[in-house]
Amino acid sequence: MTKAEIKRLSNLPKLKIRRGDRVQIVAGKDKGEVGYVYSVDPKSNRAIVLKTNDEEPDQPLPLNAVIKHRKARRQGERSMRLRIPAPIDISNLMLIDPKTGEPTRVGRRRNSEGKLERYAKKSGETIQDTPLPHE
Question: pTM of the prediction?
Answer without folding.
Answer: 0.81
